[in-house]
Amino acid sequence: MTFDDFNFNEQLLEGVLSMGYREPTPIQQEAIPLILEGKDLIACAQTGTGKTASYLLPVLNNISKTEKKHTHALVLAPTRELAQQIDQQVEGLGYFTGISSVAVYGGGDGIVYGQQQRAMKEGVDIIIATPGRLIAHLNSGTFKPDQLKCLILDEADRMLDMGFIDDIMRIISYLPKERQTLLFSATMPPKIRTLARSVLHNPAQISLAVSQPATGIDQQVYKVSDSQKIPLLSWLLQHKEYKSVLIFASTKEKVKALYKALKATKIQVQAFHSDLEQSEREEIMLAFRNRQLQVLIGTDVISRGIDVEGISLVVNFDAPSDPEDYIHRIGRTARAETTGTAITLVNERDQRKLQNIEALIGKPVPVIPFPPEVGEQAAFKPVRASAKKNRKKFPKRNPQQRRNHTGTGS
């Protein structure tokens, strides 16, 4: 199957080819025809599967057929980084169509807010927004969605985890009832199904099984005490040749503390967190993307919002509580059939988290001997896992796509 099979507008197809797209991914093959038919859709698909283009392409194609200028589509996203990333994809894919878009997010100065206001008043075709900032524009009367044709909820599970459900429902209350609604989520917990039932009408459904980590990822575990984490990480960064390193810590406070500790050892590092000004965040990300910055530290917020090729090492400074977050995190390396390393530092309290990760990926993660230069291997009391419980919570995944194009997702 090729993109020619979708009968896209000629200018849109030119943009697709100029972006280097050749064959549609599985989510694109399934979603694009359904969206072109005008159906509501609930899709379970991970980051990295091509989901953004799976909804942008049919939406861009529909907009290209309209003559009257108005806001046709609204994309709600959990973070400013993801909103910017989607906006960049609109710019690339729609380059030859003349379709306009604006990313609406907080954290900027008054100039940025004014630019967002002007774009919405002038009738931009697509708005990509974080819920909180869009509420501000609703309150000011800038955002007028009376002619909106399509609403997309991207990474809906992450938005609900971040507490945006009230904002989302308030925004939806302003939208036309006659519209197409598309919901994309990496996971499908009950709260997402409840949201889907309340905002979608007889949706088609697509479910791609949770993917396994890429075969090119060398997964490793170091068993450490908390006091050994920073010395070990410093030693690895100074004695191994990793050109581009992404480190995940569990909280913003840990990100800041780890940044100070690594900076003191003369490692080229930056912290990425919400206390930074938007211009600072963009400058850091640009430096990391251009290989002018070796090490970037952040929380799970950037595991889904970052799109950087060539990351050679991902470090879980804190083991993630959700095993699927582990797959999101380490999936930042070994992209596009390359290779990379993923190291997880596991303390005694995190042994259960490691067992859950191994249950999900279906194999043990090798434990690497502790470097003698750093100290002795931490000795933990063994934790007995309940295999029955793990199988129930993390069932063996079917590698084939599971599709059901009827029902409500309940």
Beta-strand portion reads 5-15%
Number of strands: 14
Overall average pLDDT: 86
Q: Give the H and E element order.
A: HHEHEHEHEHEHHEHEEHEHEHEHEHEHHE
CATH architecture verdict of the largest domain? 3-Layer(aba) Sandwich
Q: Using only CA atoms, what is the Rg?
A: 22 Å
**CATH class value of the largest domain:** Alpha Beta
How many angstroms separate the termini? 31 Å
Backbone shape: globular
Structural class: alpha/beta
Strand order of the largest sheet: 3-4-2-5-6-1-7-14
For the biggest sheet, the summary is: 8 strands, mixed
Unreliable stretches covering 5 or more consecutive residues: 386-410
CATH topology descriptor of the largest domain: Rossmann fold
CATH superfamily of the largest domain: P-loop containing nucleotide triphosphate hydrolases
Assembly state (oligomeric): single chain
Portion of residues in helices? 40-55%
- Secondary structure tally, helices: 16
Number of domains: 2
Notes on the protein architecture:
The longest helix has 14 residues, at 51-64. Strand 10 (269-271), helix 12 (278-289) and strand 11 form a beta-alpha-beta unit. Helix 2 (26-36) runs parallel beside helix 3 (51-64), helix 3 crosses helix 4 (80-93) and helix 6 crosses helix 8 (165-174). With 410 residues, this protein is of the alpha/beta class. It contains 16 helices and 14 strands. The protein has helices at 10-18, 26-36, 51-64, 80-93, 110-121, 131-140, 156-161, 165-174, 190-199, 226-239, 252-263, 278-289, 301-305, 323-330, 351-361, 387-393; strands at 41-44, 73-76, 101-104, 126-129, 150-153, 180-185, 204-207, 217-223, 245-248, 269-271, 295-298, 313-316, 340-346, 402-403.
